[in-house]
Amino acid sequence: MKTNIDVEMHKQGTLLVQQERPRALMVRMLSVVLACWIATPALAAYTLPEMIDTAMQHNPVLGIATAQRDVAEAAVTTASTYSNPQVEALMGPSRYLTPGGQGDHRNWNVGLSQALDFPWVRNAKIEAAESGTKVADAGMDLVRIELRSRVKNAFYDVLQRKAVLKLVEGDRNLLQQIRERVKLRVDTGESPRYELIKADTEALAAERDYQTALVRVTEGKAYLRGLVGAGVPLDYEVEGELPMVYGLPSLEQLREQIVQSPQLSQLRAVTETAEAKLKLEERLRNPGLTLKASVEEDPDLRQLRFGVAIPLPLWDRRQGPIAAAGAEVRQSQATLHERELGLRRDMEAAYQRYMIAQQQLSAFENGLLSQAESVLKVAEAAYRYGERGILEYMDAQRTFRMVRKDYFAAKFDYVSSMLEIERLLGTELLEVKP
């Protein structure tokens, strides 16, 4: 009897050990997974203001604009600098040609000359150089505006792509679940096999859409990092949402603001620089004079001389440089006029895209989204109760997915058109909140 009890207790102990082993193994696996999850550092997340600040610090295009500004300032220094004086020293023997001379002697001559520009020529040089600094300043402002606009557009593009990724990921998971349910019904004979084929096709399409959306997010983040520079790691996340600012000024008001566009400001500065160069070329016909002083000594005589040298514009009247400078003035004026027409054309096109996107958003938000969702719910309920087949439910699911994708695309088109108008005007329509 005691032996039977011992055997039974041994069996129960063995059974408990066998039951505890899977539990212990599961606990260990969970511990390892938890430790790996804790040890994995979270990706750095950046907001739009942080991205813009980083781009302003690390994007090399600003370094190029800064160097061009330094070149323009150096040109002002060059134009304001006086020419260096010139010293000339001569020495050699002298021989009397008349009878009665006392043999050979040595004499020497030291001369000093200083070239001076006329005041109106000097002022024209400085004015032309200072006009170049205005062009560089306008170019730097334009670079900042362009970079800021491109970073904002790329940032919002990544947000839109992430929203699409989240949508298709949910659809993929849902279609995989539907596929498993359909497979179960097919295996039990409740549904025909073509429903499983249809479910497999939809699941594969959802997986393809998910992989495509994942690649698009990666591409968008890579492009954004290329704009920002080395201040952002290779792997990062973005935080934010698409701004929905309803209402812009009228098209007439926007047209009036075009004259203040930084692009036109830069071209006006270029025109002023060309006019200043033309003025300088005209005055360089007679640029200045040269003051001279010298002392000459021979054995019997020391001579002091003072004089001035002025070039005479007889043969070279600078007709070629003046004509070239005049052509540059006409070219810059034509470029300014052409760019103003282009800005007005681009403004009207961007405003039309804005109006179309606004109408699409209104259609989606005022019924199209809710209608597609209602149709999906009805189809899902009918499929669960056996009133409809899997094909009708799949069609409703596909339609709802396409409607939501089109809604996200319309939101981004709305924001993108406003950013284009913002870039053309050089003013901030979509305020970046810190």
Automatic annotation (TrEMBL):
Gene3D superfamilies from the UniProt entry: Outer membrane efflux proteins (OEP)
Pfam families membership: OEP
Superkingdom: Bacteria
UniProt GO MF annotations: efflux transmembrane transporter activity
Coiled coil start-end: none
Protein family according to the UniProt entry: Belongs to the outer membrane factor (OMF) (TC 1.B.17) family.
Entry protein name: Outer membrane protein, cobalt-zinc-cadmium efflux system
